[in-house]
Automatic annotation (TrEMBL):
It comes from Candidatus Cellulosilyticum pullistercoris. It holds the Pfam family Pyr_redox_2. This is FAD-dependent oxidoreductase. One of its GO terms (molecular function) is oxidoreductase activity, acting on a sulfur group of donors, NAD(P) as acceptor. Keywords: Disulfide bond, FAD, Flavoprotein, Oxidoreductase, Redox-active center. Gene3D superfamilies: FAD/NAD(P)-binding domain. It comes from the Bacteria.
């Protein structure tokens, strides 16, 4: 059975902060805008317990900020479809085709804002204990470990912030840090250091976890002395970085060796009329504020591109 073909001004792939910002700007420009999202609307922002570095809000819950962005985009006319999964993508200079389960779309322009997912912990038993003591989202899974001893692995703001959140639930949170420093903000680290039930283990690396059916111990190795020991706990939450969601685009779009999309400061990719925004773009800093900036620029450039095509 042939799928219906729909021509549309702009398709935004991904509904995180960059995608939703692009939808706001595109809708304000009266572009017919469709946002396709197969995961959670709001992206990693929705999974953040508290956000304290977004202008205009001294402190705001991640899901609340995500809701506000979504509501604004929809109120301006953007359509957000989180149920029609993308099956294939073909992005060329002269034609863009995005096939979903229900439709074949032919947009004039495309903004890729698919973001990134947490990197898996590089330990032998990761798959065995995934969801059984190995987790990557404190907001999602932390409540299951109330009054237990748990660990966080990582060295950036995400690890520090999640440790702070988990400390409100757990009896004790152990941060396993393979170096003697953190890459996170000094203010966040100070707050962690002043939290009584958080212990930082500098120069220790997670080697593996063990347990009968669920995680019962973490096996760690000292990166300076090579000493190996086990610590009893119920869960390990990993925050060791992210991996870009770019499998759909690797045939057409230029990627770095790490899989991030190459885009210039105008968010332009190697394909005319295709733009990139947010964490999926190769860049130095990945913050909510940089994501919304990317989304703004991508939408404005897409508007210019579409307007120029109509004039020809």
């Amino acid at each position: 059975m042939t799928k219906p073909v729909k021509e549309i001004d702009l398709i935004i792939i991904g509904a995180g902060p960059s995608g939703l910002t692009a939808a706001i700007y595109a809708s304000r420009a009266n572009l017919e805008t469709l946002v396709l999202e197969k995961d959670v609307i709001g992206g990693q922002v929705r999974l953040s317990y508290t956000i304290e570095n977004y202008p205009g809000f001294e402190s705001i819950k991640g899901n609340e900020l995500a809701d506000k962005m979504e509501q604004q985009a929809v109120a301006l006319g953007a359509i957000i479809d989180e149920f029609d999964f993308i099956e294939s993508v073909s992005l060329k200079d002269d034609e863009k085709i995005i096939e979903t389960g229900d439709y074949i779309y032919k947009p004039k322009a495309v903004i890729i804002a698919t973001g990134a997912t947490p990197k898996k912990l590089p330990i032998p038993s990761e798959k065995k204990y995934l969801g059984k003591g190995i987790h990557y989202c404190g907001v999602c899974d932390g409540a299951g470990y109330k009054d237990e001893v748990i660990a966080v692995v990582g060295g950036g703001n995400a690890a520090l912030e999640e440790a702070m959140f988990l400390a409100k639930l757990a009896k004790k949170v152990i941060i396993i840090r393979r170096y003697d420093f953190f890459r996170g903000e000094a203010k966040v680290l100070e707050a962690v250091e002043n939290t009584p039930n958080i212990e930082i283990m500098y120069n220790w690396d997670l080697v593996d976890v063990a347990g009968e059916n669920f995680v019962e111990t973490a096996i760690i190795k000292n990166t300076q002395t090579q000493e190996i020991k086990e610590i009893p706990l119920k869960a390990v939450f990993g925050y060791i970085g992210t991996e870009p969601k770019t499998d759909l685009f690797k045939e057409d779009i230029g990627l770095t060796d790490s899989g991030y999309i190459i885009g210039n400061e105008s968010m332009e990719t190697n394909v005319k009329g295709v733009y990139v925004a947010g964490d999926v773009r190769e860049k130095e800093f990945r913050q909510i504020t940089t994501a919304v900036a990317d989304g703004t620029i991508a939408a404005l450039k897409a508007e210019q591109y579409i307007a120029n095509k109509k004039e020809r």
